[in-house]
Write a structure and sequence with these properties.
Strand content: under 5%
Radius of gyration: 17 Å
Number of strands: 2
Strand order of the largest sheet: 1-2
Order of helices and strands: HHEEHHHHHH
Length: about 160
Amino acid sequence: MFRSNRLGGRSNVKELPAGRLMETIVEDVIKAKAMPFAEWHALSPNPPVPLAIPVSWGWQYPVTQAGVDAALNLTRQTWKSREDLRQTIDRDAFAKLSFQGLGDTLRNIPVHLPQVPEDEHKSTVLGADFYEALAADRAGHKQLLWPAMTGISFNATSALD
């Protein structure tokens, strides 16, 4: 008989660099924000629960399933790589904290944007360094929120398996 390793996550899911996952999430937020509300809302398999990444201030960033999948992958990878977390916080609380930290990171994107003189109106291509900085910022947001999150229950276990 085989036993499921729920805490280890899916072993067949390819691990991607955090910066690449952040790039996917940012691009997906932009894509979802450009959609008409009805079109975006219709993407959710459960209409009362929209596809979104929450922000600690009570609002959320809309995403498509690709953004949710990237956020779940980032959460899963962090959970798998951090034994210290697994010993101090339950998985459901960590999932909630991870998504909220991700939302707070998205809210702080302007801090990481390169400075462009006001008289220049050209496009700036954001490279891997930008997304790596976002990934580091996300880790910092979680560090600030972890003490307050222990004991909070959030039913995301099935999504992380």
